[in-house]
Amino acid sequence: MKKLKLTKLVLAPLVSLLLLNCEKDIEDTFETNQITTEKVAHVCIEKWNTDNDISKAASLKAKEWQTGQTIRVKFLNGNNFVQSKVRQYAVEWEDYANIKFEWVSSSSSANIKIGFREGQFANDGGSWSYLGTDSNNQSHSMHFGWFNNNTSDTEFRRTTIHEFGHALGLIHEHQNPVAGINWDKEAVYAYYAGPPNNWSRAQVDNNLFRRYEVNVSNYSDYDPKSIMHYPIPAEHTTDGVAVGSNTQLSTTDKSFIATIYPGTTTGGSNCDGVATYNNSASYAIGDQVTYQGSLYQRTASGWTNLGPCDSVPSTDICDGVAAYNGSASYSTGDQVTYNGDLYERTASGWNNLGACGS
């Protein structure tokens, strides 16, 4: 791609997505409090050190990093775009946990080593992370098997924050010792036996039904809105209770990780891990650089200024999102606010992403 000098920056304002869907939505859609669940949901699998007994590996207290520790992270492969998206969303944990991620080159030593589905990892289409400090013992400790240049920001955010939660020592929330989910086990076995998971009954037992023991786990009250929770369709429970596809840190996620890693947080600068603009380099759409104290992202027509470095990201998921308009048409991926909640348009309806202010 032809190089673009930063002197030709185009500071484009945010614009609304084109309205490609002619279907008119009605307010009844929201009043049903619909939760849309992917029927082929991408979910991560649990990874354990192969030389550890699995019952012992469940001990979160033995997997925590040191409070205040700088955790070194590197990419084993992947293009600039997918790498920048992982950096962008991983640092959200720094706003609430007293830890720091340092992004180092692929040739440097690191605690967390990230791979994508290409090259030597081309056959691994799953996403996973080793638990906490188990990452130290692995040459490939985290993997994103479905990220590519067409992945939505919502999916980048959901999966990246989830996997880095594991890397900080967090378990799946549905395996919380006090979860108490009324599973329809045969329905769950049948579902996960098919694609894209193709799991055995033993894998389902390990990834969904097994709960951690209270005496070896740090845990909070059960939180169905946690970023660490699998989506659960109503047909997978005997009482019809469902859990949506959580895409944001919940209020409990934020307070709980602060109890695991207490103290002053680093804040997670929006420029963390982003290289300075290089006049001799070529950049592709989605690449990010820093220049004169601000963060920029390459677009099809120029560069967009994403804001000054060291700015504190908003903690309100509804910031900048317009209220639902009954006269408007919406396309898949559009977001609106309605009655104090954030919703995202899907192919089959609206997905509630959580309460504004979180």
Description:
It contains seven helices and twelve strands. With 358 residues, the chain is an alpha/beta fold. The chain folds into two domains: 17-32 and 315-358, Seminal Fluid Protein  PDC-109 (Domain B), CATH 2.10.10; 41-268, Collagenase (Catalytic Domain), CATH 3.40.390. A six-stranded mixed sheet has the order 1-5-6-4-2-3, with helices on one face. Strands 7-8-9 form a three-stranded antiparallel sheet. Helix 3 (80-90) crosses helix 4 (153-167). The longest helix is centred in the middle third of the chain and has 15 residues, at 153-167. 35% of the residues are buried. Residues 1-40 and 48-59 have low confidence and may be disordered.
CATH architecture assignment name of the largest domain = 3-Layer(aba) Sandwich
Ranges where pLDDT stays below 50 over 5 or more residues in a row are 1-40, 48-59
Q: Count the DSSP helices.
A: 7
CATH class of the largest domain: Alpha Beta
Shape: globular
Strand-residue fraction?
Answer: 15-25%
Gap from first CA to last CA: 39 Å
- The order of strands across the largest sheet is 1-5-6-4-2-3
Number of strands: 12
Number of domains: 2
Task: Please describe the biggest sheet, giving its number of strands, its sense, and whether it closes into a barrel.
Answer: 6 strands, mixed
